[in-house]
Amino acid sequence: MNRGICVFNIGMLATPEGKGARRGAAQGEIRIRRDAWVAADADGVIRAVGTGEIPEEYSAEGITRIDAGGRLVTPGLIDAHTHLIFGGWREHELALKLKGVAYLDILAQGGGILSTVRNTRAATEEELTEKAALALDRMLQMGTTTCEAKSGYGLAKEEELKQLRAIQALQGRQSVELVPTFLGAHALPEEYKEDREAYLCLLTEEMIPAVAEEHLAEFCDVFCETGVFTVEESRTILEAGQKYGLKSKIHADEIDPLGGSQLAGEIGAVSAEHLICSPDEGIESMAKGGTVAVCLPATSFYLDKSFARARDMISAGVPVAVATDFNPGSCPCLSLQLAMNLACFKYRLTPEEVLTAVTLNAAAAICRADTLGSLEAGKQADLVIWDAENLDFLYYRFGDNLVKTVIKKGKVCVER
Ligand code: IZC
Ligand code: ZN
Q1: Which of 83, 93, 117 to mutate to test the pocket of ligand 1 (most atoms within 8 A of CB)?
Q2: Ligand 1 atom closest to Cα of residue 329
C-alpha cells in the first residue's frame, strides 16, 4: 500500500517560504536546511520537513524512501510563461534575424506569429497535443513540474478553443501540471487586417465568453505592443476577461514601452510579462497594484535586446518571477535552468532571488502560491533532486541539465 514518500539524506534543502509572492529583500530570503528530509502523504501533500533523525511515522513500512545522496533539493521549477501549443517551427526566420530584420518587421510582413497561426490552424487538436506532450516531457526532464500554457496561434474562435482543448487534454495525461491562459489577442489575424474593431468585438463578445463558459482558461492575456494591440485596446480586452472571471496577464514593454506595465498595475493584473524596457512609472504601478513581474531573460538573449530591470523591480517592491517564454519565434527554448543562469548573470539577481523567481513567485504569477512553489507542510510535494551539492552550483554551471530526480505530487517521474 502506498503510504507516501520520504526523501532523506538531503545535503542542502533550499526553499522560499510562504503562501504569497515575496518582494523586496524577502525575495532573496531562502530557508536553507542541512541534513534534511521531506515527508509527503499518499496524496502527494507534504506532511513535514525537518533535519536530522526522521520521526518514525515518516519512515514506517509502506513509505517509499528516496535517498538524495547528500544532494541539493529545491521545489519543482514553475515555468510561468509559455506558448506551449503551436504547429510548425520558425527556423526559416533565423537567416532574416542574422541579417538584422527586426521581430516586429517580420510580423508586419505576415511572418512571425502569423506564420505560426497558419501552421497551427493546419494542425488537428491531436497533432497539437502530441507535439506539446514531447515538449512537456523535455521540460520535466529539466526540472519543470508546473507550466503556464497560452493559446494565441488560432486567432479565430474554434481555432483558439482547439488550442485550449489541447492543453486540457494534456492535463493529467502527463506529469507536468498545466495552467491555461487565453491569448486570442496575440496578433490581429490577417483576415481582420482592414477591420480591427470587428476582431476586438469577436474577442470580447464571442471568444472570451466561450472560453469562460467551457472553463478552458484561468487567465486572459494580451500582446500590448507597437503594431499589435494598443494600451486602450488591451484595457478593453482584459476588462472583458475580468467580467467573465478570467484574471489578467499582459505582454508589456517587450519591444516598445507603450504603457502596458502602467496598465497592469491599474487594472490589478496578476502579472505583467517581458518588461524589457519598462519605465519607472510602470515599475511603480506594478508595485502599487501587486502585479508580479514575469521576466524572460532567454528572450532578451534570443532577440538580442537589453535585459529587464529586474534589480530595480525588486528594489521597488515588485515580486519578480523568471520564465522561459517557450515559443517558436522569439524563444524556442524549454530550459528554465538556462533562464536561471541568464537571470543571475544578466539581471544580476542572486541565486536565492532567482530560486524564488522560478518557484514561489512563479507560483504567485499563476495564482498557485497557496499550494505550490515551496517545500513546507501542506504544500504539494513537487521537488527536484539536483546533481549539485549547493545552490550556487546551479548557476555556476550552464548549458547542461543538472537534474537528478524529479518528484511531482509525491511521485518520482524522472530518474537520471
Ligand atoms: O510567436 O513570436 N512575443 N509573442 C509575443 C511571442 C513573442 C511569440 C511568438
Ligand atoms: Zn509570450
Answers
A1: 83
A2: 2
How far is the CA of 284 from the CAs of 167, 264, 279, in angstroms?
34, 11, 9
Residue 87 region, left (φ>0) first, then alpha (ψ -120 to 50), else beta? beta
Residue type, 397: R
Which residue's CA lies nearest to atom 5 of ligand 1? 223
Residue 39 DSSP SS3: strand
Distance 325 CA to ligand 1 centre (A): 8
Dist. CA 256–CA 278, nearest whole Å: 9
352, burial (CB in 10 Å: exposed 0-12, middle 13-18, buried 19+): middle
Residue nearest to atom 7 of ligand 1 (CA): 330
Take atom 6 of ligand 1 and give the residue whose Cα is closest: 330
Pick from 365, 334, 372, 324: nearest CA to 136: 334
Q: For 393, phi and psi rounded to 5 degrees?
A: -60, -35
Question: Ligand 1: which of 224, 273, 330, 331 to mutate, most ligand atoms within 8 Å of CB?
Answer: 330
Say how many Å lie between the CA of residue 81 and the centre of ligand 2: 6
List the pLDDT tens digit at each of the 416 positions of the chain.
789 999 999 999 999 999 999 999 999 999 999 999 999 999 999 999 999 999 999 999 999 999 999 999 999 999 999 999 999 999 999 999 999 999 999 999 999 999 999 999 999 999 999 999 999 999 999 999 999 999 999 999 999 999 999 999 999 899 999 999 999 999 999 999 999 999 999 999 999 999 999 999 999 999 999 999 999 999 999 999 999 999 999 999 999 999 999 999 999 999 999 999 999 999 999 999 999 999 999 999 999 999 999 999 999 999 999 999 999 999 999 999 999 999 999 999 999 999 999 999 999 999 999 999 999 999 999 999 999 999 999 999 999 999 999 999 999 999 99
Number of H helices, E strands in the chain: 16, 16
Q: Which of 82, 83, 115, 81 is CA-nearest to residue 96? A: 115
List CB contacts of 134: < 8 A, sequence separation 6 or more.
none
